[in-house]
Amino acid sequence: MGRVSGEEGASHVHCRKHHLQVIGCVIVFYFSFFVFFLSRYASLYFCCAVENQDNELLTLEIVHRYVELLDKYFGNVCELDIIFNFEKAYFILDEFIMGGEIQETSKKSAVKAIEDSDMLQETMEEYMNKPTF
Amino acid sequence: MVVPSLKLQDLIEEIRGAKTQAQEREVIQKECAHIRASFRDGDPLHRHRQLAKLLYVHMLGYPAHFGQMECLKLIASPRFTDKRVGYLGAMLLLDERQDAHLLITNSIKNDLSQGIQAVQGLALCTLSTVGSAEMCRDLATEVEKLLLQPSSYVRKKAVLTAVHMIRKVPELSNIFLPPCAQLLHERHHGILLGTITLIMELCERSPAALKHFRKVVPQLVQILRTLVTTGYSVEHSVSGVSDPFLQVQILRLLRILGQNHEESSETMNDLLAQVATNTDTSRNAGNAVLFETVLTIMDIRAAAGLRVLAVNILGRFLLNNDRNIRYVALTSLLRMVQSDHSAVQRHRPTVVECLREPDASLSRRALELSLALVNSSNVRAMTQELQSFLESCPPDLRADCASGILLAAERFAPTKRWHIDTILRVLTTAGTHVRDDAVANLTQLIGGAQELHAYSVRRLYSALADDISQQPLVQVAAWCIGEYGDLLLEGGCEETEPLQVEEEKVLALLEKVLQSHMSLPATRGYALTALMKLSTRLRGDNNRIRQVVSIYGSCLDVELQQRAVEYNTLFRKYDHMRAAILEKMPLVERGGTQDEEAKESKEAQLSEAALVATEPQASKLLDLLDLLDGTSGAAQPPPAPEPSPGGTLVHLLDLPCASPAPEFPAAATGPQWGHSSSSGWPSSDPAPQNPQS
Known about the structure:
The complex is a heterodimer. By secondary structure, chain A is of the alpha+beta class. Chain A contains four helices and six strands; from the N terminus they run ββββαααββα. In chain A, the strands form two sheets. Chain A has a four-stranded antiparallel sheet with strand order 1-4-3-2. Chain A has a two-stranded antiparallel sheet with strand order 5-6. The radius of gyration of chain A is 16 Å and the shape is globular. Chain B has a domain at 451-589. Chain B has 37 helices and two strands. The longest helix of chain B is centred in the N-terminal third of the chain and has 21 residues, at 21-41. The model of chain B is unreliable at 592-599, 607-619, 621-626, 628-655 and 657-693 (pLDDT under 50). The chains are: A alpha+beta, B mainly alpha. Chain A: This is AP-1 complex subunit sigma-3. Chain A: Pfam families: Clat_adaptor_s. Chain A: InterPro entries: AP_complex_ssu, AP_mu_sigma_su, Longin-like_dom_sf.
């Protein structure tokens, strides 16, 4: 499985809060060895590439799980959360998928791992200004 | 440097605030210069911030290679913040192709062996994402040690790193195979998932490993059974389905282990049936598991009943509202249609419904599947459906649909008349999209069905009168009218409506085809020859035909011109032979180059005779020339030989003549006959002394 990337579809500056709702999932096209998936959540598009033998319907679940993780971590995630905390989005992804395979199927554990890492970071930085970056 | 460096979020704000592409570039260039400077001599405390900014810029597509060494420095730093960003940078910037790639090996090695979970996790993650074969070899033993770590967090990541290592360096399978047995007893879902993935990799790479792991099939069955029946846990379930990710992975492994192995397949039969029937299908998660189950059933040596169950599940998927589910169902049914034909047949109505899908990829798959489902008992109904699909389908599917219908008609036609009707309808609807041999096939078919000559020619005449733009149709119609023009004018044919056709109208129609700008050169050739044939079929005088033929004698198209000239000569000098030459063609055998030529023109008749003719018969050709030469019976018209299949062409040459007189130049004989060569007809042959009048 390739890396998942999310990009905002609109360029509004104000934050739009929305309930996590899949607006459309599409199995986009077959391209040599890969199948591309596109999932749309409001104005967020998630594109994912999987190999031929991977279960297409499960891939939709995988994308949805990732979005749920983001939601749980950021609390009602919106596009700007992802834009301004892109490195966190990567860290969360790295707790869910590793080397192209799923590593953790428990939402709770995945989010806890990130929070533990954040704590580790914070204790080092407690005397510095937040945000860390 | 007086200005404090921008915070990451400020930079992002600034970039997003840029109104144009140029402005954005400017902001980024300025910032990159800043970053470069700070990499050189900047404050180590804020290095991670600089790299984070650089990574953002990299994500937008700008060059960031100068940050590679910085990644290395950050990874080596003792601070966790640094390591986190450093490793992220390594994963984004330091793939195998970069020179600096190997330099991270040492840092990873150090981080793997020190005790902080989070740090070990980072190192393992980087290793499994960008680890090269070199690196994997170096660090394999470290990772193996981590498989025994007390922390499940680390074990889980170590297993997946092992998967990556095996992909890169298959020889490492030796190291990672032994721990699998122990790991399968884990309760932690993540570790279990990773282990199953690891076993899958091992089995795919080595038949010995595959054999070894068949032993664990019962254990896997047990795990899955527990998961499905009692293993409900809130944190792992998705829409009421217990850990679908783990279920799917187990099913995949079972598929690999059960393939071509009776015993293993039998062990899983019950479980597969259980999963197939008990999974909740109201949400996608359940459908994903169900789909995987179907795929597994398809690939192992499953019991017949189980296979039918799988097909029925796919049939149910076809009725689902979700497009994606219909899509996977159609694709999978296509795979199963050969092996489980009767089971898939039961869902034929649903498949045919799917032809009406607005989505192009769905209707394409539905078309493929429908064509695969046609058999002798449903051919009429299916062809009906496919014909109506052909009328409204998107252009890129037309060709496939048309050729599919024609193929199906050829294989399963119940009657010849139905066959002819079907081809006719396809040619009328999608004439421009049919394959080239459709014309040849249809003429051959019509030619062979003697009882249907009258019917065919009438239908074709009506079709042609309506529309002369569809070239294949026009070609066939022209040929038919030429061959069976007499039947067309005769009147009574019970199978079609009575059609009063006049000679003049027929000739007018063929002329229209000849003159139309829509007609291809080949089509015009057909029309001209048809006109010529009608000169013997119609009862009226041939002035009109002679006129057309002489006009085309100066046509710019060389092929037409040659034909016209030859036909002209036929009228003028060899009129007594005209009837014989233009009589009805015998049925040609299918296949081989002989077909195409035979259907083109009457010269082709003779060329075929030439091809068929072996050496002894070459002398009969000479006989013909002899006759024309006038050495014997100069004024005697040849008797018209009776038509008989196959042998007629030879009879044509079997004309009464004197003994063979091979005094003609070689140029006039054999293979050159009939093709566009200067010596095609005796009229251009220098030898004859007394040409017939």
